[in-house]
């Protein structure tokens, strides 16, 4: 009986993984598009003003 339960749990684990991989995406990201950059780019060689 123990082998049957082990086989059943392995089969369930693998089938749940396959369903998760091949199912449509469930991300709930807002559809806002690309946002423009409104800052100044980082300059690596710039000294801090202290």
Low-pLDDT regions: none
Tell me the strand percentage band.
under 5%
The profile of the biggest β sheet is: none
Which structural class is indicated by helix and strand composition? mainly alpha
The percentage helix is: 40-55%
C-alpha end-to-end distance: 73 Å
**What integer value in Å does the Rg equal?**
25 Å
Instruction: State the total count of DSSP E strands.
Output: 0
Arithmetic mean of pLDDT: 81
Task: Outline the fold blueprint.
Layout: H1 2-22
Provide tags for this entry.
50 residues; mainly alpha; elongated
Report on the architecture of this protein.
With about 50 residues, the chain is an all-alpha fold. It has one helix and no strands. The chain has one helix at about 1-20. It is elongated. The termini are far apart. The mean pLDDT is about 80.
Give a quick rundown of the structure.
The protein has 50 residues and is mainly α. It is built from 1 helix and no strands.
